[in-house]
Design brief:
The complex is a heterodimer of chains A (294) and B (242).
Chain A lengths: L1 H33 L6 H19 L3 H27 L5 H24 L14 E4 L2 E4 H23 L1 H11 L1 H6 L4 H26 L7 H15 L4 H22 L1 H4 L1 H13 L13
Chain B lengths: L2 E10 L8 E9 L3 E5 L6 H9 L4 E8 L2 E2 L5 H7 L1 E4 L11 H8 L6 H14 L1 H5 L10 H13 L5 E5 L7 H16 L3 E5 L3 H6 L3 E6 L2 E7 H6 L1 H8 L6
Parallel strand pairs in B: 3-8, 3-9, 6-7, 7-8
Antiparallel strand pairs in B: 1-2, 1-4, 4-5, 9-10
The chains are: A mainly alpha (294), B alpha/beta (242).
Chain lengths: 294, 242
């Protein structure tokens, strides 16, 4: 009986981990390459969620079909944002600090726009599979979470293969690790920045389509997510995508257990406690560089 | 004039800050090893960065094969045939040795030619072949320096500029680094070297250039500079020390 519960919780935790991993990997990519702390990332996830929601509500389009559309729309938005906002400031010595303010403002603008357009009503996309489940013995796996987890991991794997094996992907990794050296070897670091930013924001859009049927959402909910995502990125090691993905699964599973033993109210706390503990004990996270003691 | 690379009366500095170089001039002859020496803050590294376009040349000129390359970006300078290994070695610590070599040929169009070049380099520097799948950040200091020097050879550059390649390395390893330089010259690569360790640098150089306060003080064959009394003065603080 207890054993079955434990397995059940593990399954639910892992299923949620996938979506968090996808949200976090976009954030991590953008931070790694551009040193942009994108507090607006989850508000852009929210835009993807609304695209999927309205496509389903008005046209009956499955969120899985809307996903690539949301990805492209958000990636294009990313290009615009980069050109209008982030590129101009890129020469500033306090770039990372400035981006915190810039993206904070951006998050408020996006939230306000979504609230004005769609009100603060809770929404959720409800394709058939969102409320259905598979049963293995007494363990149930919600189909919606399972599918979103599988799709998330597929997208993340595609990203990982691109970064590892394509020439441009290598240039992105090189720029993350040593921007000056990449430039000396002939990498157009500006273009790398633009493309990485577009991919990162595009991933937010894709995650949004999945989130739309996994969670109920309303415009201001992104504040809750940014806190969770930041803890993933910090635990993973700032800018390490693999680390972020692992952190997403580890923390989601722990949060699921915390929810079971202490009540759902406490489960979100897991992420913040993890954030504190990581910063105290291992500030470079799982896969990050040791911070310089300057 | 058969000077391959010529720096004439260059004035340059970082951003809007004060000029670090105040009329530095260097002539680089094809096929030889040139060593720039000078006390701390003389502008040695700054000179290399000015040549490669990492900092702006405010006055004076830099010509390569008779053509001005002043104002070009680092990647454009690279395509002209001048490679630069900065002091911090410029590796990608979390990429493998082989991936680092591949980045060295990022600007090459023909990727199969690139793989062929990497194979050649690996044959010449067997340690890199042995460690090809290891992350560059886990190599020893000497191996990292070997990797960053070998990486420049992928593009078959005409000039390689090295900023203090011996920095932080044990004497035995330093000797290996100078061996690699010899291999480079055998390939017909011209070398422009900056060295804090003047004795070591000049011993291996055909031509020495002495820089102080952003100006070229004097230059001449490496062995002559080595015995020049002015060097003693510059480094050891006056006649007393000589």
């Amino acid at each position: 009986m207890i054993m079955a519960d434990m397995v059940q919780i593990l399954v639910l935790g892992l299923a949620l981990g996938g979506v968090y991993a996808l949200m976090g990997s976009g954030l991590s990519l953008v931070f790694g390459v551009m040193r942009i702390v994108n507090l607006a990332h989850p508000s852009l996830v929210m835009v993807g969620a609304y695209i999927a929601y309205w496509a389903f509500r008005l046209g009956g389009v499955d969120p899985m079909i809307t996903l690539p559309v949301a990805l492209v729309i958000l990636a294009a938005t990313g290009v615009l944002l980069y050109k209008l906002v982030f590129e101009r400031e890129a020469r500033s010595a306090k770039y990372s600090e400035m981006t915190v303010l810039l993206t904070f403002a951006l998050a408020m603008v996006v939230e306000g726009a979504l609230g004005t357009a769609f009100t603060n009503t809770q929404r959720v996309t409800s394709p058939d599979y969102a409320t259905d489940a598979f049963f293995i013995g007494s363990v149930f796996i919600p189909k919606g979470q399972l599918y979103s987890g599988i799709v998330s991991l597929t997208i993340i794997s595609a990203l990982a293969l691109f970064l590892k094996y394509s020439a441009f992907g290598n240039a992105i990794r090189a720029t993350t690790q040593n921007r000056d050296a990449a430039e000396l070897l002939g990498v157009n670091v500006n273009l790398v920045g633009l493309v990485s930013f577009a991919i990162g924001i595009g991933l937010a859009g894709a995650a949004g389509a999945l989130v739309s049927f996994v969670f109920s959402f309303f415009p201001a909910k992104h504040w809750e997510w940014i806190a969770i995502l930041m803890s993933l990125v910090v635990l993973g090691g700032m800018g390490s995508i693999l680390g972020t993905v692992l952190a997403a699964f580890i923390l989601s599973v722990i949060a699921a257990y915390v929810g079971f033993f202490f009540g759902a109210t406490w489960s979100t706390l897991t992420f913040f406690v993890a954030l504190f503990v990581v910063l105290l004990v291992r500030p470079q996270g799982l896969f990050g560089e040791k911070p310089e003691l300057a | 004039m058969n000077d391959l690379l010529q720096v004439s009366n260059v004035v340059a500095g970082y951003g809007d800050g004060p000029a670090i170089l105040n009329g530095a001039s260097v002539k680089v002859e094809s096929g030889k090893v040139h060593c720039i020496i000078g006390p701390n803050g003389a502008g040695k590294s700054t000179l290399l960065k000015a040549i490669v376009g990492m900092i702006r040349v405010r006055e004076g000129d830099v010509t390569f094969k008779g053509e001005s390359v002043k104002g070009l970006r680092p990647d454009q300078i690279l395509r002209k045939g001048i490679s630069f290994v900065p002091q911090e070695r410029a590796l990608f610590p979390k990429m493998t040795v082989r991936e680092n070599l591949r980045m060295g040929g990022y600007s090459m169009r023909d990727k199969s030619e690139l793989e062929r070049r990497i194979d050649e380099i690996e044959e010449r520097f067997l340690i890199l072949k042995e460690r090809r799948d290891q992350q560059a950040g886990t190599l020893s200091g000497g191996q990292q320096q070997t990797l960053s020097m070998a990486r420049t050879m992928i593009l078959k550059p005409e000039v390689v500029m090295l900023d203090e390649p011996s920095l932080g390395l044990a004497p035995k390893i330093v000797a290996e680094i100078f061996d690699i330089m010899r291999v480079m010259t055998e390939e017909g690569i011209t070398i422009l070297l900056v060295e804090q360790n003047a004795l070591m640098g000049l011993k291996h150089a055909d031509w020495g250039v002495v820089l102080d306060l952003g100006r070229t003080l004097f230059e001449g064959p490496g062995k002559e500079i080595l015995n020049d009394p002015r060097i003693q003065e510059l480094y050891l603080g006056g006649k007393k020390a000589a």
